[in-house]
Amino acid sequence: MGSPRPLTKKQVLDLLSKKAPLSGADLRGIDLSGVCFDGADLRSTKMAECNLSRATFRGTNLKAASLWRAECSDTVFDGANMEEADLDFTNLEGASFRGAKVKKTIFPYTRVPLDDVLDSVRTGRRIRMTGPDYDDE
């Protein structure tokens, strides 16, 4: 027996509308752009390689979630619990983290300096990615 299939966008939206927990769910590779996850329980959820651009995660529990290589441009993580979450290789251009808990969170530090992340946590300032794909050179 193989592992269970990832959920579909329709299934995710249905579960969110019912306020059902999605902790531990497999959402890898789904286009979830613009979805409102505010207040959802997404602990240990697999969202690697998802399109999460313009999604909102206000007050969401993302503890130990994997957003590895996800598209998170203009995504709002304000007030989210992101402790131990994996955002390595994630596009965070324009994302905000006001009041988020980021203890032991893995960020793409080669493209987002820690000081910029902490500044976003304090002020809500949107992230500006650096590196060859993001510099205005």
Explained architecture:
The protein is mostly loops and 137 residues long. The protein has one domain: Pectate Lyase C-like (3 Solenoid), CATH 2.160.20.80. The chain is built from two helices and no strands. It has helices at residues 9-17, 114-123. The N and C termini lie far apart (51 Å). The model has no long low-confidence stretch (mean pLDDT 92).
Name the helix and strand elements from N-terminus to C-terminus, one letter apiece. HH
Number of helices: 2
Unreliably modeled segments:
none
> For the residues shown, what is the average pLDDT?
92
As a whole number of angstroms, the C-alpha radius of gyration is: 14 Å
Give the biggest sheet. none
**CATH H-level superfamily:** E3 ubiquitin-protein ligase SopA
Overall number of strands: 0
User: What is the straight-line distance between the termini?
Assistant: 51 Å
The CATH topology comes to: Pectate Lyase C-like
- SSE class: little secondary structure
CATH top level label: Mainly Beta
Give helix % range: 10-25%
Q: Can you tell me the number of structural domains? A: 1
Shape: globular
- Named at the architecture level, the CATH assignment is 3 Solenoid
Beta-strand content estimate = under 5%
